[in-house]
Amino acid sequence: MHLPPNDTSGSELSPREIEILITIERTGAGFSMVAITLTLLSFLLFKRLRTTPNIFIVLASIANAGASIASMIGYDGLDKGEESTLCQGQGFIFEWFMQSDPWWSFAMAFNVFLVFFNNANPAVFRKRIWIYCIICFGGPLVPAIVLVSIHDDAKGPVFGNAAVWCPYPTDRP
């Protein structure tokens, strides 16, 4: 990792502080990926774990994996330049999966509500998993596509320098 020699991002972080943040972020993302891998392996290897609630956990884990991958990219996106494919891809992945993960949490909480307060049958959730996927993955995908598609000649792309990764820079409205 190296910082641009004339960094005009407005970041008040020193190169050392940015390096520390990147290390912390990548370490956390690495631990998260280990947990996701164990979750997926357990689900695939043990048939008894393939319950309806665990399907939702696996799908939420996929969203978490996307966010972790974007976190692992760290400063590399900015290092390649704000208009680089890596930076724009990182911003896109963050926008999509960071928003998708809480939607899966909401879906699980909603299912619990339906089971406990409306006597819903959890087997119905499994049959309608495609609806959950459209809402929880597709919903956040729309703004991610819109934002990665916006490019203003004067201001550049929407995704840009936010000190350590490539979501919205502070000078964007």
From TrEMBL:
> Main site of residence?
membrane
Keyword Transmembrane helix applies: yes
Q: Which domain of life is it from?
A: Eukaryota
Q: Name one GO cellular component term.
A: plasma membrane
UniProt xrefs under Pfam families: 7tm_2
Q: Which Gene3D superfamilies match?
A: Rhodopsin 7-helix transmembrane proteins (1.20.1070.10)
Any one Gene Ontology molecular-function term assigned to this protein's record: G protein-coupled receptor activity
Keyword RNA-binding included in the entry's annotation: no
The G-protein coupled receptors family 2 profile domain covers 21-173
Per the UniProt entry, what is one GO biological process? Answer: adenylate cyclase-activating G protein-coupled receptor signaling pathway
Q: Where in the cell is it found?
A: Membrane
Topological type in the membrane: Multi-pass membrane protein
UniProt keywords (A-Z) are: Membrane, Receptor, Transmembrane, Transmembrane helix
Q: Which SUPFAM superfamilies match?
A: Family A G protein-coupled receptor-like (SSF81321)
* Chain segments annotated as transmembrane: 20-46, 55-75, 103-120, 129-150
The name of this protein is Cyclic AMP receptor-like protein A
Species assigned in the record: Trichoderma asperellum (Filamentous fungus)
